[in-house]
Fold this protein.
Amino acid sequence: MDWNSIIAAASPELLLAFAGLLAVVVGAIYKDAFARISLDAVAVVLVVAGILSLVKIEGGLAFGGLWETDPYTNLAKAVCYFCSAIALRMASQYLVSEKLIRFEYAILVIFANLGMGIALAANDLMTLYLGIETLGLSSYVLAAFNRDSQRSSEAGLKYFVLGSLASGIILYGASLVYGFSGSTNYDVIALSDFNLGVMFGLVLLITGLAFKVSAAPLHVWTPDVYQGAPTPVVTFFASAPKVAAMVMFATLLFEAFGSVLDQWQDVVSIIAGASMIIGAFGALRQTNIKRLFAYSSIGNMGYALIALAAGQEKGAAALLVYMAIYAFSQLGIFGVILSMRRRGGMVEDISELSGLSTSMPWLAVCMTALVFSVAGIPPLGGFFGKLVVFQAGVEAGLWPIVVIGILSSVVSLGYYLKIIMLIWGGEKMPAFQGTSGTVTFTVTAATLLVFPVFVILIGWMMATAGGQFGLPFG
């Protein structure tokens, strides 16, 4: 066993695995006395893992070809780990206020990140499945973390049942690909004869992964889980796992099935179009702010899928740029939602945003910028994210789906502008209670990241990864 190659390719995940197991042992001994410390400790571990992903950005092969990292996947891992660390720190005040501060929370988050890291580094269908299941099992428990809430329990149960079905579909698809190609390794599959059995397996893989990214028509679980799960859990779900799921989707299709792009491009395009339409129109009639942003996430996954359907190097880079901007914007938006607390507890009705401009004017300014960014208003980051996605689609000749994307963006302005109007012009509501400095700092940082100077920095990072090291596909 070549330990140098393993350390070069898998050091962040080895750190997460060791830290997770250590946290389990310490938590079993000290129980809830370890709970608050665990949030900070795991956040630090995640930041270190993110830094390791950037330091070891060239990556390499490990575990007999089952594991492969490169600049593209390492950048995605860094984004996931940093987003998870931020989401974990933002959760502290909520967990204390709602009496949910238990040591298992941080452990579930770290193992979810381990699953993301494994899936992103997968060069084999079995490695991919292992990562997806590690992420999924942690996520199901997180969704139901508030045991005293019926909504949370229902969200966790629904996510578990439907997620298990999607995992079964992925596994069945992998078995068909293995049976008809003779291997589960991406490199070997890419060289195989793509007969009808392999293509049917690919359809099942796309179906299962579409569930994982909340793409239509497999999106039905998303609004219920967003509404029912504790808000810090939704903050996590809306950021890091979205990036991981979309990038693992891209890596599988481009590396293992890139030579038959024409066979799956139309399927992904249809999923993208359906997601954008359902996301835009579904959000218009929502009154719960978490459900609204659930539909918004469905639509945004549709935009990212345009880059995936483009099937080229620029499309791959556009996908990661878009998902990075989207993830940090979601952290800021849900940071504001976490601040919407009165004596009776958390408030989630959209009309309650009317109290934001008077009680927390700075957060109101940040929320305005973040919502405009997600809406794609220039010159904010979301505009540039959609621009590079649409450019990739146009260069690939996907004009119909790009037109649907533009029209969906126009429709989505309806509910985004409704939020802005409520913040600044709605009927004045009682003031919210104060929020923690960590949440305010995070919302401020996320807001700064959507301004052009930081978007240019993100674009430079992607160009550096693609130009200096070379993307894994093109």
